[in-house]
Each structure stands twice: as structure tokens, then as C-alpha cells.
Amino acid sequence: MKRHKLKATERRAIYDKCDNHCAYCGEYIKYEDMQVDHIMPLHKGGADSIDNMLPACRSCNHYKSTLTLEQFRTNIERMPDTLTRDSTTYKIAVRFGVIKVVRPKVMFYFEKWAEFDKKQEAAENGE
Ligand SMILES: [Zn+2]
pTM score, two decimals? Predict the structure, then answer.
């Protein structure tokens, strides 16, 4: 599917979605460094619309690539296994306690942001 060229106002609206942060890892990103990610990849039927776009840092955008959100989450959660398979340095670091493996349920920055917004709204409405 062909993607449409974003207007400056659209690009700005995407950047503003997560208050200057990568929607996935939460790192601060400069406007000019922002990459636009399609939450549901275009070739998996995702829409080429602002609703399906999030601001991403270069590394998250590269790593997520054509994965869906849940595939991306699963890949991140399995990183200790991938590293154990692929990196002797990692394995040794774990054995010596230099790296402690924790396995949190991965939550993306934009998801935390949405939760925060909901709480703010509830507080403002006296709930
Ligand atoms: Zn990121």
C-alpha cells in the first residue's frame, strides 16, 4: 500500500501525541528526529491515517518494523531468551549477577500516557 506524504501539520500532530516522546520506549525525541510509525503496519492492512500513526525513535521504529503492536511487545518480552541464545557476554553477565533478568509485562509509553490521561480526567471530574 502506498503511504501518503504527511503535511507539516499532520507530522506536528503526530509528534504532539506523546508530548515529544517515543510512543514505545518513552525516550525524548527531537521533532526532526521523530519517525512516524504505523501502529498496524500498512502491509498488514493498517490504515494510512493519523489515527494509525505514532511518533517513534529511530531504534523502536527500526525494531518494530512490520510487527504488530503485540508482536513487538512479545519480541521485547523475549529479549532475555534471545540474548541468552545469541550472546555469550550476556549469559556470563547473568551468571555473575552483573545483569539481573526481570520479566515485566511490557507496557508502551503511549499506553501509560493514556492511563495517566484517564486518571487526570477522573481526578478533575472528582471521581
Ligand atoms: Zn523508542
Answer: 0.86
